[in-house]
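Morning run. Coffee first, then this:
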Amino acid sequence: MGKYFGTDGIRGIANVDLTPRLAYLAGFAAATVIGEETGAKVRAVIGKDTRVSSDMLEGALTAGLCAGGADVTPIGVLPTPAVAYLTRKTGAELGIVISASHNPYEHNGIKFFNINGFKLSDALEAAIESVIDAPDGVAVKTHGEIGRGIAETHSFDTYIEHIASRAVSDFRGLKVAVDCSNGAASVTARRLFAGFMCKTEFIHDRPDGVNINAGCGSTHLDSLRKTVARGGFDVGFAFDGDADRCLVIDETGATIDGDILLALNALSMKKRGTLRANALVGTIVSNSGLDEFGRAADIEVYRADVGDRNVIELMLEKGANLGGETSGHTIFLDDSTTGDGQLSAVKFLNLLAETGDTASELARKIPKYPQVIVNAPAANADKAGKMASPQLAEAIGAAERELAGAGRILVRPSGTEAYIRVTVEAETTEKAHECATRVAKVIEQL
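And here it is:
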């Protein structure tokens, strides 16, 4: 991670860490660096989620981009994957999303995509950081070189048509509940699902600027679980604030996480002959059941570091077209260059239609070991010291000896939140929770 860029863009509390000045400088730096790389005038598209601070940061970013010579097309509130798709579709040299994904409303972030719809390389991020730190060494554009705002009116329809085209049928007869997390999916999900002829109920789709991810969405599933149970729904989908994640609630109220979604889609793609490299890519925190699934299905399972950019990099290296994270980022590289929650929902509806199984019957096909994740609070400045602590190393060693080969422990700093995450797999959920909690307490006391 760099000085400003974490695992997923520039993040911080709006107007505290992520100020309009930083947003201006990030826009100016990005326009400058990308312009120098391409040798041409940069075109940028900007989308955002529903946070109260997104408009403020959009204005600052736009000013910086124009000062750096980029023409800017604002496309309004749209999911992160929509911006990535439209960047590639329109041939824009730069795509930008203002969002802090699943984090609370007071946080915000700036994510950048290149002309191909992928996250920027480490080298480009480092170059942007250099300009942010020394903007006086770079001349702003003047006269006719100043960038302009350019209106665009078809982004919404273009994205919806793209996702809808991945459906294999109209899903008639299914009852579907959708949690929009009061985020970007609030403006797209109704239109998307209306074309599928299924009975759909939407919850948490009334954003007010401060209720994004608040007790809802992919990080707070109880509300959707209650909705599915109360209404007798066949399936429920939970997105996060920028709709690049999707988790599923089956008809019994159980959670179907990203690992299970990966495996189910891998089986379907292999059967249809579309699973490239006969492989999928998970992460270091993916459940060990994914490896067992791979062995049984004769599918290669690779593991990347956490973060969808790391997953995509390994997918490209291995020639795979399917990858994702336990948290619900599922990447179908033939259809999208990043995780797309609504695309994942469509793919799961395809599985229901193809197999005739219920959601719970599908999930039971994939092994899953008891796994618990406990978040230990840790300021970003303290993470490195805590991770290098002898006391933590001793606690991890003790946990490994206790698990004695019948489980595993993984301790890693979050790249998007002020936590160190302790992940434990064990023979029982109770044992995993007890072990993870004990190590987390050591971290808190450091």
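The first strand starts at residue 5 and ends at 6. Good start to the day.
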